[in-house]
Design goal:
The structure holds two protein chains of two kinds.
Chain A lengths: L4 E12 L2 E13 L4 E5 L6 H8 L7 E6 L2 E2 L5 H11 E4 L11 H6 L9 H14 L15 H13 L5 E5 L7 H16 L4 E5 L3 H6 L2 E6 L2 E8 L4
Parallel strand pairs in A: 3-8, 3-9, 6-7, 7-8
Antiparallel strand pairs in A: 1-2, 1-4, 4-5, 9-10
Helix pairs in contact in A: 4-5, 5-6
Chain B lengths: L3 H8 L3 H35 L4 E6 L11 E2 L1 H9 L5 E2 L2 E2 L1 E12 L5 E9 L3 H4 L4 E5 L6 E5 L2 H5 L11 E4 L2 E10 L8 E5 H7 L4 E2 L1 E5 L8 H10 L5 E5 H11 L1 H31 L2 H10 L3 H30 L4 E4 L2 E4 L4 H16 L3 H8 L3 H6 L2
Parallel strand pairs in B: 6-11, 8-10
Antiparallel strand pairs in B: 1-13, 1-14, 2-12, 3-4, 5-6, 5-13, 7-10, 8-11, 9-10, 15-16
Helix pairs in contact in B: 1-11, 2-8, 2-9, 2-11, 2-12, 9-13, 11-12, 11-13
Classes of the chains: A alpha/beta, B alpha+beta.
């Protein structure tokens, strides 16, 4: 089966003044559908840069990023925005919920980009909130939720439009162990039961151990491939 | 597009910022309304004060100020008999020799203020057709008739110039015999004396001007009046159409109007820069939120529109507040100036100017902070604190 993500010889360079920084150089990677992949590495190793490239947040200097066969590196800024709206769910370390909106309204945001009717949207939102265990918190604002609950709302927002790809940047980085474990279980469920392909950046070895596969990045190169977990 | 409620709710995210934006835009719009109303009021009163059917004879070289003009008393009868096509009523020709004078007047309450005085005879009503008596009667010897806005020009209570009360010109007391209206003209701010009284009080042996009303059937024209001034160049007169005289005065007041605009613009600029500063701070705090929405799939244009909606809501609320304040503080208020008094009116033009200002504040004023908020690259914006 074709991998959902296929990265071919990707290089990403930034120019800062007269200095050129290359956080990723000639990197290649395949991620099969339904895999929960963890990217680890020290600060500046290029893991968030890679995550942003996979999510269509950033574009590579050279190389191909094929997602479901489409090279998103060739898309314009506007095309990338549209592509993200349909194909990606992004989970941030600090949740990035809109503080003035309720959990329900935050989860609704990706659906407002489509053509769904109000009742159809409501069904999807409540279903996503139920999936993350927050069906009874729909009317709460982010300030009325705990960190773990906020991250669950953020996950519901990331999955509500049913994207095939979820990217998570340190999703447990700001949570206590109990909440972090619960979020990791949720991500695992999304990958195994709902066939979402998940790419997660983390510093936490325990979080990384929850993934099906862990890759270690250093200076823009993979240096070690970790365990491959089998799930029932 | 983001739902409108997002922009609406964002307004209340920071109540102090909302208050600043609404208050700032209200001040700017109110100032602009005041400036437009002031200019429009002055223009209206000056244009309404002059009739194209009236011609004024003034002393040569005094075409720009009747008060400085001197015309021989005999010129009045000479003009009446020599010029054809003059309006007449019941056999009386509409030719009115008048004295215009500015002098301090002491009211019944003891207030002494500069007033616009006009020495007239009853036939002046034939040329000043907008004048109508509201109460009392035309002034005879020892009497004066006050325009119904004269108290505003002098700066006293209306009751201070009520019919039956007295005025003092120097040591001479005159009784107020009547009150008149001349809607929308500078005449309403004047005090009319018996011409002979004013001549002796001011120790003048001449008139200031002669106003001639040309016949409504078109049989007379300014050319006839000008011909008279050429034929009788011994009288050293100039003829000027009354409406042109006030048009020229309007030019004379142009620097005042410019000053009004400059003052309004300076205060508005201060408010705009203050508002920009507030918006910069408010939008800078939301760079990450905007980036998150972009990562979800919202375009920059959609977010920009939402920011503009948010600002427009605030500035239009400010505009509405300015309209309400203007209604209570400005509308109908009379403003004295050197030759009369004009009324501030919230005309559709004035309100439209305020609305345009409110819209411009919400759009153009929002552009720099909105662009600054949406300009950073997505990865950089997502990392911002």
């Amino acid at each position: 089966m074709n991998p959902l993500i296929s990265i071919k010889s990707v290089t990403k360079s930034f120019t800062k003044g007269t200095t050129t920084i290359t956080p990723l150089e000639n990197l290649s990677l395949d991620v099969p559908r339904g895999e929960f992949l963890s990217l680890m590495g020290p600060s500046g190793s290029g893991k968030t840069t890679l995550l942003n490239l996979i999510a269509g947040i950033d574009t590579p200097t050279s190389g191909e990023i094929l997602i479901d066969g489409n090279d998103i590196a060739k898309l314009s800024r506007a095309q990338l925005t549209r592509w993200r709206a349909e194909h990606v769910g992004y989970i941030f370390q600090l949740y990035h919920l809109v503080p003035i909106l309720s959990a329900y309204e935050n989860v609704e945001l990706p659906l407002l980009l489509g053509n769904l009717g109000k009742s159809e949207r409501k069904k999807k939102i409540l279903s996503a909130l139920d999936l993350v265990g927050l069906g009874d918190r729909a009317d709460h604002r982010p300030s009325e939720l705990s960190g773990g609950q906020e991250q669950r709302v953020a996950i519901a927002r990331a999955i509500v439009h049913d994207p095939e790809l979820l990217v998570a940047d340190e999703p447990t980085g700001d949570l206590d162990r109990e909440s972090a474990d619960s979020i990791l279980n949720l991500l695992d469920t999304l990958a195994t039961k709902h066939e979402k392909t998940i790419v997660m950046v983390t510093h936490d070895p325990k979080a990384s151990a929850s993934a099906h596969r862990a890759l270690q990045l250093e200076k823009g190169q993979f240096i070690e491939e970790g365990h491959l977990l089998t799930h029932a | 597009m983001l739902p409108f409620t997002y922009a609406l709710r964002n307004l209340f995210r920071d109540p102090s910022r909302l208050a600043q934006t609404v208050g700032g835009s209200a001040v700017v719009v109110l100032l602009l309304i005041a400036a437009v109303a002031l200019n429009q009021g002055m223009d209206t009163v000056l244009s309404a004060s002059g009739s194209p059917q009236n011609v004024i004879l003034v002393g040569k070289g005094s075409e720009e100020s009747i008060e400085r003009s001197e015309v021989e008393i005999s010129a009045e009868s000479a003009a009446a008999t020599s010029i054809s096509g003059i309006e007449s009523k019941l056999g009386v020709l509409a030719v009115s020799g008048e004295i215009a004078y500015q002098a301090p007047i002491t009211t019944a309450s003891g207030v002494e203020e500069q007033a616009l005085l006009r020495g007239v005879l009853e036939k002046s009503l034939l040329v000043h057709t907008t004048v109508s008596l509201l109460e009392g009667h035309f002034p005879g010897p020892g009497e004066a008739m006050v325009g119904h806005l004269a108290h505003r020009k002098i700066g006293v209570d209306k009751d201070d110039l009520a019919v039956g009360k007295s005025l003092k010109f120097g040591d001479t007391e005159v009784k107020i015999s009547g009150r008149f209206a001349a809607p929308g003209t500078v005449l309403e701010s004047e005090i009319w004396f018996d011409r002979n009284d004013l001549a002796s009080l001011t120790q003048r042996g001449s008139l200031s001007s002669i106003t001639i009303r040309l016949a409504e059937d078109g049989s007379g024209s300014i050319d006839d009046v000008e011909l008279f001034t050429f034929q009788r160049n011994d009288l050293e007169l100039s003829a000027i159409r009354e409406d042109h005289y006030y048009d020229k005065l309007s030019v004379f007041y142009k620097p005042i109007k410019i000053m009004t605009w400059v003052t309004a613009a300076l205060v508005a600029a201060g408010a705009v820069f203050g508002g920009l500063n507030t918006l910069y701070a408010a939008f800078a705090a939301r760079i990450k939120e905007m980036a998150t929405l972009q990562s979800i799939g919202y375009t920059r244009v959609a977010l920009f529109v939402s920011l503009i909606q948010e600002s427009l809501l605030a500035t239009l609320t400010g505009t509405l507040l300015a309209f309400i304040l203007a209604y209570f503080l400005l509308d109908g208020r009379t403003v004295p100036f050197s030759i009369g008094t004009f009324t501030l009116t919230l005309t559709p033009t004035v309100l439209f100017s305020g609305l345009v200002a409110g819209i411009l504040l919400g759009t153009i004023g929002t552009l720099p902070p909105a662009i600054r908020c949406l300009l950073p690259s997505l990865p950089k914006a997502l990392r911002s604190s």
